[in-house]
Design goal:
The chain has 185 residues and is of the alpha/beta class. It contains five helices and eleven strands. The structure holds zinc ion. Zinc ion binds next to loops. Pathway: Secondary metabolite metabolism; methylglyoxal degradation; (R)-lactate from methylglyoxal: step 2/2.
């Protein structure tokens, strides 16, 4: 029952990601800033979208949450407890865990502050697989990190080098901007 990840380019250079289980078709989405586009991909793959994982409160990440709640009433919207995330229904602290219903996919909330006070990175694993993925929003990019809007250099060091740096070396990194632009240069 492999875990699959689809990237959905949004806005100018944002990336939203759909995480799903191939057998049960249950899915989660990271930062669905353009809900119509997300639901098109969800429908194309015959998926059932259960929950939204918001990395941080900035509009280009959380700005689609209200709309996706309108389109999919009852959907759970997660976000960091220290960020005022638009449309959030479930606040997360560092170390909180959740699972995608009817799958073996588990999600760990990692508080990675500095870009925003309550920024969350999501570490996602499937119990029958060795590989894992982390969704780093605007904390970690391909060749750098996000701006220090609401935190200190010490916090960014902790977020990058301790919190994210402690994940298994095989973890795949999915960031909120840039990645495919860089690859296509
Ligand atoms: Zn941001």
């Amino acid at each position: 029952m492999p875990m699959k990840i689809l990237d959905v380019p949004c806005l100018e250079d944002n990336y939203s990601y759909i995480i799903f289980d191939e057998s049960s078709k249950q899915a989660a989405v990271v930062d669905p800033v353009e809900p119509d586009k997300i639901l098109q991909v969800v429908n194309q793959h015959g998926l059932h979208l259960n929950l939204v994982l918001t990395t941080h409160h900035h509009w280009d990440h959380a700005g689609g949450n209200d709309k996706i709640k309108e389109l999919l009433p009852g959907i759970k919207v997660y976000g960091g407890s220290l960020d005022n995330v638009r449309g959030c229904t479930h606040q997360l602290l560092n170390g909180d865990t959740l699972s995608l219903p009817h799958t073996n996919i588990n999600i760990l909330s990692l508080h990675t502050p500095c870009h925003t006070r309550g920024h969350i990175s999501y570490y996602v694993t499937a119990t029958d697989q060795h590989d894992s993925a982390v969704f780093t929003g605007d904390t970690l990019f391909v060749a750098g990190c996000g701006k220090f809007f609401e935190g200190t250099a010490e916090q960014m060091y902790q977020s990058l080098c301790v919190t994210l740096g402690s994940l298994p070396k095989t973890t795949r990194v999915y960031c909120g901007h840039e990645v495919f632009k860089l690859l296509s240069l």
